[in-house]
Amino acid sequence: MRALAxxLAxxLAxxxxxxxxGLLPHGPARGDARLxxxxxxxxxxxxxxxxxxxxxxxxxxxxxxxxxxxxxxxxPRETQYVDDDxxxxxxxxxxxxxxxDTSGDRGNIYYRQDDSRDVLDQAVxxxxxxxxxxxxxxxxxxxxxxxxxxxxxxxELSQDTEPSTKLxxxxxxxxxxxxxxxxxxxxxDGGLQFLGTRPKESYNVQLELPARVGFSWGDSxxxxxxxxxxxxxxxxxxxxxxERESNTGxxxxxxxxVGSTEHVEPGGGEGAAPAVPQSPPEHPNPGTAGHPHPLSSxxxxxxxxxxxxxxxxxxxxxxxxxxxxxxxxxxxxxxDGGTGQSFSANxxxxxxxxxxxxxxxxxxxxxxxxxxxxxxxxxCAQHHGRCSPHAFCTDYAAGFCCHCRATFYGNxxxxxxxxxxxxxxxxxxxSLRVGRASVGFQDxxxxxxxxxxxxxxxxxxxxxxxxxxxxxxxLLPVGGLFAWLFALEEPGSENGFSITGAEFxxxxxxxxxxxxxxxxxxxxAEGLGPDxxxxxxxxxxxxVPFLPENVTVHITPYEELYSYSSSAVTSSxxxxxxxxxxxxxxxxxxxxxxxxxxxxxPHWRPPARQxxxxxxxxxxxxxHEHVLRYALAARIGPARGGAENPGVSPCHDGSHTCEAPARxxxxxxxxxxxxxxxxxxxxxxxxxxxxxxxxxxxxxxxVCYNTPGSFSCRCRPGYAGDGFQCTYGEVPAQPRALCAxxxxxxxxxxxxxxxxxxxxxxRLTPCQHERMYPREVPPLGDGHAxxxxxxxxxxxxxxxxSSGHCWCVDAAGQEIAGTRTAPGTTPPRxxxxxxxxxxxxxxxxRMYPREVPPLGDGHVxxxxxxxxxxxxxxxxSSGHCWCVDAAGQEIAGTRTAPGTTPPRxxxxxxxxxxxSMCERWRQSLLEHYGGSPRxxxxxxxxxxxxxxxxxxxxxxxxxxxxVEQSGREIPGTRSEPGTTPPxxxxxxxxxxxxxxxxxxxxxxxxxxxxPEPRPDVSPPATGTFLLYAxxxxxxxxxxxxxxxxxxxxxxxxxxxxxxxxxxxxDCRERMIYWTDVAGRTISRAGLEAGSExxxxxxxxxxxxxxxxxxxxxxxAMFWTDSGLDRIxxxxxxxxxxxxLFDTELVNPRAIAVxxxxxxxxxxxxNREAPKIETSTVNGANRRVLVHSDIGLPNGLxxxxxxxxxxxxxxxxxxxxxxxxxxxxRRLIQSNLNYPFSIISYANHFYHTDWRRDGVIAVNxxxxxxxxxxxxxxxxxxxxxxxxxxxxxxxKIKTHPNPIPSRVLxxxxxxxx
Length: 1312
Hints:
The chain has 1312 residues and is mainly β. Helices cover 8% and strands 34% of the residues. Strand 55 (1025-1030) and strand 56 (1033-1040) form a beta hairpin. The longest helix has 14 residues, at 117-130. This is Nidogen 2. Residues 647-688, 689-725 form the EGF-like domain.
């Protein structure tokens, strides 16, 4: 308390930050361990004297890492987490997560656990300042303290560089007791001299990733997408505020509640702390140095929220701790030879060999684990040899007990190492009745694999004969025993092995409902064998429900209540499981009673009840290996509420009044309800069958058969399928089953050749069966008895007797749409039903109309005499019309509104053919443009045969060019607006009637022979795609519309020894250009197969070339060099290189060009004054465009269609846009991670991210994240660009300083 008072007095004097004495005492003088110096070191797992509760889970060990983190498990390599954003894939407490390094005597990292009074007083004072109400009664019993003192950032040193003098000091404190945990982060004044570290992969790219401060659960199956975390700071501004702000009212002190909940709760949300006495109670601690004098304090405080309060106001408040009496605590030996807190009696000792013996007479003693004792009074002197080699013996009034030593757990007679993986071997025998079959088995193998650190248990039983093996799937309690034995312990709770050890007997009885089958299981543990393998014998006897081959069993998470006595553990309950087969499933239940007996210690006072929580449970049968497997993940904790055991439910003792097939569902206390299984309806205390066939659940071409509690569907003659889906075609000659079954327990399966009872509906044809059970025919009302021919087939013409309506049917008896006639009119002419089986797609669509969005109801298409789709289709009820192709697919852009003139539609192709590449591309773009492309959007032109027309033009831009048959532009043929190039039609292929279209320019004919492809080059397909730089390779990521087609992503180009940063694309010559900071070069390569990379700017005059932009109109490129602080330009072949700017630049990074208007834009990553500048492409009219509210503008892109300049800021985490003159600035997204480069395409942005190591998609309109791609190979992604199948159009805008005419002529541009 004195220490804290002194700290706060200093805070009052300083007023803005925590002085160094505000840290909790640390260092060698306090017995701290010191982490080994290095770049990526971690401590051994420090076994805690008592388990702490973290994120709602028990933790027994803590690890400290160099990189500013604490974890409950050992760390992976730093490359797997140090540069990543939260969440991490392992549990983390992070006071300053960054790439730190203590090599070369650059600082120390100390850690220890402590239960001294001065440390706990100072910690609880900070905690109660942040949680004045909820933590008012919190009394910690232990603390874990980790201190990073004067540590440096990782730095690549060379002969020309000196180690940085910026060093950081900070501390993390975990204060806890058996019930709760709080974490304190402390940042003293001047303690954070650097706020981030450079990634090791950044090479000479001037990039720094801010540290991360916060917490991560690390328990998600997909941690990069679903993991839970709490972030306090991850930007430079937030990190700067750590020293000045607070959530406790004490600058630099941050407190969090992390124990009894699965969510981190920051302090500061409960208002001002309560006043404390003028003279807080003192606790003498003569062993504490450095705090010899008490300091009186004031009694009030005004506290302000942490965020937005740059100068918290303290009015003399000294956080206090409530005085508490000393409590008795069991003397527990430590690994360091010390002891814990004081205890009430002085034990006498007895030693023999390696067994330590203590005497404790406290009748309220509740040790961590109990031990067995003999029936009569026995002492350790006589029987200590009964204890495990890893235990010590203690004498009590009632006898002796064994207790496992630190780092081990068990009942003392058997002890296992904590956190280790355990194995269990056993034999299983039994006699089972499964359905009508009796199955016996003797000594088949059982193996279990236990991961004690997180409570997982895996069980495998091999060799059980069928059908018993599959029928044992619901017997999860067989493997559930091991889940209870080795469950993860919550604070104050003990798993089964800590109570019974390896010698016990479990008796288990299960009764299944609604069938009433009963099975009994006896499992006997016979001690530990060699290598600590637990030996177990299992016997199973009784009756279990039959399960067919094609089913799976699903078990939902559950909780189970265990009641304890001195020599027995009991549990009972009712569980449910789901048996599934395809789309059918049935919920089945069983009643469970289990009793575990063991030899206990009379001195041990067992817990009244404990709750076992099973978070995951799986049961499966591997038919290939013939192995039955169970898997469970469990934890054990105190029973909620602490009430006494409730009365036995009538569902469990059989006194309920439910009538079969209803099942009894337990309620509160002795209450219960009678529930019906699927396929039944409640009927008093019983159930009656539901006729599912009345709801027509089957396919229209199938017949439904109702059975008790179930139903089945069977396809009509001429159709094949399972009854829920029926398609045209031959029925298999020997189907496995003629019907699909639903529900349990009836499990009615009809097999070919199965003897049928007299009158079995299977002997009737579908038509005859329907005559027996007529169905309604909407809207005629009463049932229609169909007319059948002599063979029992449906007659083609059907008429409804009472109404006079007639219609045609197909072979399945289904009405053919459009054939119904009114009463009194001539019936339709119907063909033979067999002919209907060979319908055209149009005719089939008439029978089964589909919805036409957004018109709603089904559209019955119009077919011609040959059954083909008519080119013009109109929707009867709405009046919309549209054109279709030969496949009946609507042609985009042809739909007309009701009341307007229908579109003029040509005839579809007389024969069906798949759409060509041109047609697919055209249709994809039309859908992307919403059916109505703008004048500045390109849509490919296709001829009637589906080929690209030789002449292609870009919207209303006036630009036209010639293409090859593949649609690829022929270099040199692009013309300016007002002129049209003469293009030659390709040689006729499959369309001999195609007309000739002029002559192709002979000077630009493609070569007839191409070079062989390089093995490390994979040419892309046509269409729009993204290219991204990832270290030594360039990746290819195609787009499907605007969605990332992740499955087709691949490496486009491997560049060993390079570090590719900037990347851009020349749409005229289909070439990619990139900068290489490792080789200090700028290179290019074509997208054609066989293209070789070509260096066009060598290392001379380059240090760190980063951003790159290509001007496809002027045939020029521009780049930034953050090493030389320059912006340069050159021709695309590397000639005519010149410096545009080399002044007033600090860290130029990204660069973008607007070829049409001739403007250049770039970002300067100057930490003191970041900015975005612009000029003409010739270097004229330089000016600052954006300079306020930006931090680290890494990425920059100019959208040629929206004419917006947009940037991604790694400092502010913002994605923003503005007009080229700096006006109209607007925020798109405010929560980016750490963007590096960005590109715009259609209605999306795509940026690379260094926290995610992937490509992220952001919608331009909503700002929402819509997609992401994370390459399998994990490393940082740099530049990104989009490759269009065309060039954005436009004319070159003339500037006061014109481009030389020779450049324009070389680019094919007019010079007048």
